[in-house]
Fold this protein.
Amino acid sequence: MKEILKINKITKIYKNKFKALDELSLNINEGEIFALLGPNGAGKSTLINTVCGILNFDDGNISVNEYDIIKDYRKARSLIGIVPQELNLEAFETVWNNVNYSRGLYGKSPNYQYIEELLKELSLWDKKDNKLRELSGGMKRRVLIAKALSHEPKVLFLDEPTASVDVELRKDMWKVIQKLKEKNVTIILTTHYIEEAEEIADRVGIINNGKIILVDEKKKLIQKLGQKILKIELSESIKSIPNALESFKLQLNNEKNILTYTYDTKGKNTGITSLLSEIKSLGLQLKDISTEQSSLESIFLNLVKESENEFARA
C-alpha cells in the first residue's frame, strides 16, 4: 500500500516555549480515511496547519506523494486541500464564483465541467447562484469542501468537518466523504465526535501532548484494546446486588433486572464462568445473556488518561 503522506519527527515550538508537536511521526496511506482523535490542545490543528504550509515547524520533514513540502512547496501544496473549522467565506460572493476563484488560486486553468460536477455531488448545484450569506451553516460547510476540492487535490484535510452541524447533515457529510474515498482521495479528519471516526474511518490515530500515542486500524483497535460487556437479564427483579457478587463490580439497571459485567478480552481469565456459577448458587434465574463490544470512545478516553499520567510522571 502506497504511503502518500509521510510525517517524520516533526517538532513545533511556539514563541511562548509551548511544544505543540514533539518529534511526531505519522504515515498516511493513499485512498484511506484516517481519523485523528485527541483532546483540546493535543496538537491536531497544529499538525494539519503544519502539513498544509500554514505554520512553519522547527525540526523534521514532511512529504506529500514524495514531494517535500519545503523544497517542492508548489508541487506538494497543489496536492493538498484543507477544510478549516471556521466558516470564513466571502459573504456577498456567489457559490459558483467562489469555488472557481479557489481553483485559480492554485494556478489551475478553468474547468467549468469539473466544478459543475463537484457542486452537483455536494448538492450545491441549485445554490450555485446564491450568495454565500444566504446559505445555512450546513450548506456553507459544503462550499468549504467544494473550495478545498476545486483544484483536484489527492489529500484532503477536514478539521472538525461536522462541527455545529445537526445529526442529519452530519450523516450526509459522511456520505460525501465516502464518495471522495471511492475516487481515491485520501482523507484525514479531526473530530470530537467519536461516532464519526467509528462510522467512516479506516484507521484511527490518537494524539496527545503533541505526540501520536497510538495508530491502528479501527476494527483491530476496538478488538485488541476494547473491553466487552456481558449483560445478564434476570427472570425477576432484585432489590440490590448480592454481597457474594461484590468482587465482580457489577452494575444494576434502574428496573433492577439486568446485571452488567465488564471484562477485558485480553485477560487470561474473563471471570464469566465464576460469575455465572455464583449467580446459579444464589438461586437467581437467568432470562437472557448478551455481550457488547466497547465503543471507540471508551478506548480513546482510557488511552488519553494513560498518556496524561505518563506525561505527568515525565
Observations:
- Residues 226 and 279 are 25 Å apart (CA to CA).
- The chain has two domains: 3-222, 227-293.
